[in-house]
Amino acid sequence: MTDETISILIADDHAVVRQGLRALIDTEPGMILVGEAQDGIEAVLKARALHPDVILLDMVMPRQGGLETIKQIKVEWPDTRILVLTSFAEDEKVFPAIKAGALGYILKDSSPGQLLQAIRDVYRGESSLHPTIARKLILELNQEPEQPLTEDPLTEREVDVLQQLAQGLSNQQIAENLVLSERTVRAHVSHILDKLHIANRTQAALYALRKGISNLEAD
Predict the structure, then answer these.
(1) Cα–Cα distance measured from residue 97 to residue 85, given in angstroms and rounded to the nearest whole number
(2) 8 with 118: CB under 8 angstroms?
(3) Is the pLDDT at 219 greater than 50, yes or no?
(4) In whole angstroms, how large is the CA radius of gyration of the chain?
């Protein structure tokens, strides 16, 4: 573990939800709540002023919803880590959020431990998807037009890394499993994203699941 503190912004229009999240984060070492927003417009303003490490974002909010908020934030701050926290698992909400740049999508009925782990994963730039959400996204991806690969196919080692990445493993865990340095794993992940013409680890994981390179039931 490092001594880094994860700064978090909550965007949700329900005061009781914000209160519960605040209480959870306040008791967790290594995390600090730096701001709260009641709608998407306020979320953008708070993100601009506070530069949080992770934004917990509801999809359905007044004035401006989650999807438009994600797009606006990612345009201004492409490296912002966004974790969607919502009651909704409908396909029409999930897939656009991931395509817009959210790294994680977790339902509000998840346990406190699952939420805290998702925050840590997203902070590290890693995907955080419940298997139910992943399955929905795979169905949506099957309807998407194919993106051509680059002239360079994935190497055998890159396929190994992609298989592990699709199981939600961190770079450190992949490095340990494949007996590589974490720096080498990071390089492989970067090459994978470039070759597949995709933006982040979540989309890479979904590609692997869709193509049968990995599966949700793998160890």
Answers:
(1) 11
(2) no
(3) no
(4) 17
